[in-house]
Each structure stands twice: as C-alpha cells, then as structure tokens.
Design brief:
Layout lengths: L4 H7 L34 H15 L3 H14 L4 H14 L14 H10 L6 E5 L5 H9 L4 E6 L5 H4 L6 H15 L5 E5 L5 H4 L6 E4 L10
Parallel strand pairs: 1-2, 1-4, 2-3
Helix pairs in contact: 4-5, 5-6
The structure holds S-adenosylmethionine (SAM).
C-alpha cells in the first residue's frame, strides 16, 4: 500500500486543480470558471500535496553553504563589494525601523542586496518596478536612490488577480494590503501606477535606467 503511494501521487493531475495554494488565483480570476471549485481550498487539491512534497525534496537537498558560496562568487564576478553593500543595506533598514536583511523574509530576496551593490556603482535617474505588491521594495529603492525617480506598477484593486492572490482576499485583507502599499509608496520620489503591466508603455512614459520586473509569476498566465 505504502510502496504504491508515490506512484499514485505521481499520476495525479498536478496542474489546473483549482486552488492549490494561497498564492493561486481562484479559477474565475483566469477566466477559467468552468474548472472545479474546491471548498477545501488548497487542502482539497492533490496538486497541493504534490507541490509540498517537491518543495520539501528541494529543501532537503538544498546546500545552504554551497548556495552562499556561489552567490558570493557571482557578486565578485560582477565586481560588487557584497559585504560592504550588506552593511549599508542593514544601516538603511535600521534607519527605517526595519529588521536586518534576510534573503528570505517577506518579499525581500537577493535583489535587495543587488540594488545596494548597484548604488555604489552608479545612480540610475529613473527606476521602474513592475509588481509593487505592498511597496516594501519601492520604499527601499527610494531610500537607496533618493535622487532617482521611481515608477512602480501594480494591478488596480478592482482586478480579480490582485483580489485573489497574496492573501488579499476579503475586505480585511485588501484594507491591510492597501494601507501598507499607500504607506510604503508615500515618498516624494515614488509614483504608484495602478495598471496592468501590459499597459505600461501607454501609461509610464520615457526610458528607465533600471527596471525590476517582479509582476505576476504565479502559475497562471500573467504579465
Ligand atoms: C511578487 S509581488 C511583487 C513584490 C515586489 N516587487 C517586491 O519586491 O516587494 C508581485 C506583484 O505583481 C502584481 N502583478 C501581477 N500581475 C501583474 C500585472 N499583469 N501587472 C501589474 N502587476 C501585476 C501582483 O498583484 C503582485 O502584487
């Protein structure tokens, strides 16, 4: 019984089983309302357990020390002083009342450190971020590059994809999200555009020196 379990698991459909994580849009968000709706949410989908198993497989096989070494080598190859940037980044975060940098905390990832490195190399005049989310990265960019003009783009709150992803469901979820987004994008050098990134060329004019593309990268097709 136990020995055939992985085979059964493997055979189960892994994609398109409606809700399989809080990050997944509900079917109607993708114009796929004919897909089955599972009241148990992600826990009712075999795909969810499949993905969790794979995730844990990757975690168990993940060599943190090796990954850190490779990352340090890549920064060195690019001629960046990673250690200096880390100290500076932590200083900026501390001044903003935030905890020190962790490459897996909330929306933070190695891109924050990369921006801190870039800051020591050159000053972008205009920065474009696609996918604002709650504006944490836009706020950081504004502190790292106070003389830059930062345009950041996310979906309007009327968009079903926004409403049904990243825990923004329900009135409480959306209110909390919007409060953070307004607060984080309130710096004078940030302009938030609530528009699908598809319309960026028509909405956000001009050229940009630095673009951070971090919009929809869930399983559903988004830009
Ligand atoms: C990973 S989050 C962005 C995180 C943010 N850039 C950061 O570093 O903190 C992705 C965001 O992209 C937005 N998004 C998804 N599809 C989009 C689209 N077509 N146009 C604009 N924004 C989109 C989502 O609403 C979500 O807020």
């Amino acid at each position: 019984m136990i020995s055939c379990f992985p085979a059964v698991w493997w055979a189960l459909p892994r994609d398109g089983w409606a809700i399989d994580s809080t990050m997944q849009p509900k079917p109607e968000a993708n114009g796929q309302a004919d897909r089955p709706w599972r009241p148990l949410g992600r826990f009712g989908s075999p795909g969810y357990y499949w993905r969790k198993a794979r995730e844990w497989g990757f975690r168990l096989g993940y060599d943190r020390a090796r990954a850190a070494r490779i990352e340090a080598e890549k920064f060195a190859e690019l001629g960046f002083d990673r250690e200096r940037a880390l100290v500076e980044l932590d200083g900026i975060l501390r001044d903003a009342g935030k905890p020190p940098f962790r490459d897996a905390g909330g929306m933070a990832s190695v891109h924050w450190l990369l921006f801190a490195c870039l800051r020591n190399e050159w000053a972008p005049r205009r920065i474009l971020e696609i996918g604002t989310y709650d504006g944490e990265t836009a706020a950081l960019l504004s502190r790292l590059f106070p003389a830059s003009e930062i345009a950041t783009v996310d979906l309007p709150e009327s968009d079903p994809i926004l409403r049904q992803t990243y825990n923004r469901e329900g009135e409480a979820g959306i209110a909390k999200f919007l409060e953070a987004q307004v607060r984080n994008t309130s710096a004078a050098n940030i302009t938030l555009h609530k528009v699908n990134s598809f319309f960026v060329p028509m909405t956000v004019r001009g050229l940009f020196d630095l673009t951070w593309v971090d919009g929809g990268h869930l399983t559903a097709v988004q830009l």
